[in-house]
Specification:
It is a single chain. This protein is an alpha+beta fold. 28% of the residues lie in helices and 45% in strands. The chain is built from 2 helices and 4 strands, in the order ββαβαβ. The longest helix is centred in the middle third of the chain and has 14 residues. It is globular.
Length: 97
């Protein structure tokens, strides 16, 4: 199977405990699956399960381990997706005053 990277821009659902202080996030998701379309759907499902709404897909692509060799944090996410099927990092920003 292939690893795909999907970057999602999202907003916290009202049920998300972070919704009081967090306005939004870029959510980087790595998915081990058969196709890019399936990876996007699985990434959306994951984000939904984490109490976030998908605003839009920023970017998506097939990726290789070598793409992350110089970034230990992202390499860890890639490796976790290889092992567990999915991995994600949420880069949030606070509510505007």
């Amino acid at each position: 199977m292939t690893i795909y990277y999907v970057m999602i821009e999202g907003v916290p659902k009202d049920t998300n405990p972070e919704s009081e202080e967090t306005q939004g996030a870029y959510i980087d998701v790595w998915v081990k699956t058969e196709s890019l379309e399936d990876a996007i759907q699985k990434a959306k499902d994951y984000v939904d399960h984490e109490e976030w709404e998908v605003d839009h897909i920023e970017e998506s692509a097939e990726v290789l381990r070598e793409d992350y060799i110089d970034d230990p944090d992202l390499l860890e996410c890639y490796d976790e997706a290889c092992e567990k099927g999915i991995s994600a990092i949420f880069y949030t920003w606070d509510q505007e005053e």
